[in-house]
Amino acid sequence: MQYDPVKRQLGSVFNRSPFLRKVFYQLLDLLLLRAWHVHKELRAWARDKRDSAIHIYDAGAGYGQYSYWLSGFSPKWRITAIDVKEEQVADCNGFYQAIGRPQVKFEVGDVTKYTNPGAFDLVVCVDVMEHILEDEAALRCYSESLKPGGMLIISTPSDQGGSDVHDEGEGSFIEEHVRDGYNLEDLKAKALRNGFSKAEPRYSYGTPGKISWRLSMKWPLLMLNTSKLFFLILPFYYIITYPIAYLLNWADVSMKHSTGTGVIMKAWK
């Protein structure tokens, strides 16, 4: 399935006003299990940093929802967000200016080439690595751009069915993915040989998360990819299914998983 056309359709609805965009971000935070896992790690990282002058790099920022969430922690935090899509960068800059958060700046760039040596305390990379062939080039750029002791957090599919691939020769559910997912040790090794001194990968999307993902993301996306008419049905669908998905998300974030379809990795320079 092609994910980008659905994203563009959603964007055309929620970009009509800053209020609608904020609602969209809140919906993403509620629905996307990866956001639950990333937010959990970022809250722990930010615990003693709210009053510090922090510089954050949002690598492959997409819609900008993580930049929005992080910029709400402290006006002292500056965020540089990079994405390859010029239209999306212009749109995000307009939104952040409209809501009065000038500390967030979007730039057009390629995460496999962009560097700002020793500039950042934190690099956030969510749903990016599975889209780029030159993943080690990206990791080198991230480590070069971090201050000593700075942290990288990655969220990406695992090789345990993370792109909904379960058998040899089966295609990824998301056509834009260039790889089906990562093995924990492989991703850790790539980080360690590209400038990081320590890396801690773990699985996300265990059994509760797999069920939640199908309920809250896979089936709605398949419906939307079939016909725009499903936009009208979607609110009623979520009224029924989201309470179940919410409990499943909470369980997934609370548990440790011996395997899972997602990977969360923290790495330090």
Descriptive account of the structure:
The protein has 269 residues and is α/β, with parallel strands linked by helices. The protein has a single domain, classed as Rossmann fold (3-Layer(aba) Sandwich), CATH 3.40.50. It is 46% helix and 18% strand. The protein has helices at 4-14, 18-31, 33-46, 65-71, 86-98, 135-145, 184-192, 207-226, 230-254; strands spanning 55-59, 78-83, 104-108, 120-126, 146-157, 198-204, 262-268. Strands 3-2-1-4-5-7-6 form a seven-stranded mixed beta sheet, with helices on both faces. The longest helix is centred in the last third of the chain and has 25 residues, at 230-254. It is globular. The N and C termini lie far apart (36 Å).
Which parts are unreliable, with pLDDT below 50 for 5 consecutive residues or more? 165-173
Number of strands: 7
Q: Tell me about the biggest sheet?
A: 7 strands, mixed
Query: What structural category do the secondary elements indicate?
Result: alpha/beta
Radius of gyration: 18 Å
Give the DSSP E fraction (strand runs of 2 or more residues).
15-25%
Overall number of structural domains:
1
Task: Give helix and strand order, one letter per element, not per position.
Answer: HHHEHEHEEHEHEHHE
Any guess at the CATH architecture? 3-Layer(aba) Sandwich
Helix content: 40-55%
Q: Report the span from N to C terminus.
A: 36 Å
Largest beta sheet: what is the strand line-up?
3-2-1-4-5-7-6
Q: Helical segment tally?
A: 9
Oligomer: single chain
**CATH topology (fold) name:** Rossmann fold
Query: How would you sum up the global shape?
Result: globular
Question: What is the CATH domain class?
Answer: Alpha Beta
CATH superfamily: Vaccinia Virus protein VP39
Averaged pLDDT? 89
